[in-house]
Amino acid sequence: MTEELSREYTTACEQLRTVGLSNSAPEKLARLLLEWSERGQTTESGTKFRFSLTHEEIGEFIGASRETVTRTLSIFKSRQLVAFHGSTLTIPNKVALENLRTLLGRDFGPFSDQIPSSFLAQGGTHKAFTVQ
C-alpha cells in the first residue's frame, strides 16, 4: 500500500511540474513528451511510446487548447522533433527536444518561432544564436 501511494504521489508531482514550471504551451508539451518517453522503447530510430490521448485530452492535461496542441505538434513534426506512426510517437533525438524545451523557457521575444532546427540539433549552438 505504501509503495502504491508513493507511486501516485510521484506521478502527481511530475504532473504538477509539467504544468506549473513551464511558461508556454510548447514548453509544457515538450516536457510532457520527454517525461512519457522515459517509459518508451529505445530503438535505432529514436525513443518510441504509445500516444493514445487525443489532442483535446493533452490540452486539458497541460492547460492549453486543442488547437494549440495540434499546432505545436505540427511544428515539432516539421522540425523533425517527433514522428507519428499510427498511435506510436517517436522522438528521434531527445537532446533536440530537450534543447527546444530549454529554449522555450527563455524569452526570445518575437523571434522565438525563428529558432532554426539546426540550432536545436547541435545542442544550442548556431551561427545566428548562442545559448549561454
Topology, pairings included?
Blueprint: H1 2-20, H2 25-37, E1 41-43, E2 46-50, H3 55-62, H4 66-78, E3 83-85, E4 88-91, H5 94-104, H6 117-121, E5 125-126, E6 129-130
Antiparallel strand pairs: 1-2, 2-4, 3-4, 5-6
By DSSP, the count of extended strands is: 6
Overall spatial form: globular
In the CATH classification, which architecture of the domain at 2-92 applies?
Answer: Orthogonal Bundle
CATH topology call of the domain at 2-92: Arc Repressor Mutant, subunit A
Polypeptide structure, described:
The strands form two sheets. The protein has a four-stranded antiparallel β-sheet with strand order 1-2-4-3, with no helix packed on it. It has a two-stranded antiparallel sheet with strand order 5-6. The longest helix has 19 residues, at 2-20. The chain has a domain at 2-92: Orthogonal Bundle (Arc Repressor Mutant, subunit A). It has helices at residues 2-20, 25-37, 55-62, 66-78, 94-104, 117-121, and strands spanning 41-43, 46-50, 83-85, 88-91, 125-126, 129-130. Strand 1 (41-43) and strand 2 (46-50) form a beta hairpin. The radius of gyration is 15 Å and the shape is globular. It is built from six helices and six strands.
Summarize this, please?
This protein is of the alpha+beta class.
